[in-house]
């Protein structure tokens, strides 16, 4: 049983694990997206999200605290200048893990971990792309058709229903 075992040691000593997570966090901040194993990505998420939260408050104390974790001046500068202003309104959940499958060499689960506010393809497709859609059906809202031809047919039916009938 794994009672109370909250840390995935990743098969490394404590110092090696801290160095690994520090380097991965710096790379994530600088490149906005990295490819790694799922186990490392889940540990990196726990490591980097508190740092991103601390970066919202740009003070000397928070900069020094973040630098003690990252040990990289460039990533700290990037984090506090450009990343912090993009995540300022977000209450949490700054990273996204997208699973890619398995690695050919050792069959390890591979994923992409990225900063949520920097995926331009998803941000462009987001407004109105799946508005009103559900997994249950093809209709956008109950009672309305989705295709233009169906909408025209629906409009013709309504106009026939509302038109006065000529009885002779």
UniProtKB/TrEMBL annotation:
GO cellular component: ribosome
Biased segments, Low complexity type: 142-152
Keywords: Ribonucleoprotein, Ribosomal protein
Basic and acidic residues bias spans: 155-168
Domain of life: Bacteria
Keyword Ribosomal protein listed: yes
Basic residues compositional bias, start-end: 132-141
Chain residue ranges for the region called Disordered: 127-168
Keyword Transcription regulation set for record: no
Pfam annotation, one family: Ribosomal_L17
Entry similarity comment: Belongs to the bacterial ribosomal protein bL17 family.
Subunit comment: Part of the 50S ribosomal subunit. Contacts protein L32.
UniProt-recorded name of the protein: Large ribosomal subunit protein bL17
Organism: Rhodocytophaga aerolata
Taxonomic placement: Bacteria, Pseudomonadati, Bacteroidota, Cytophagia, Cytophagales
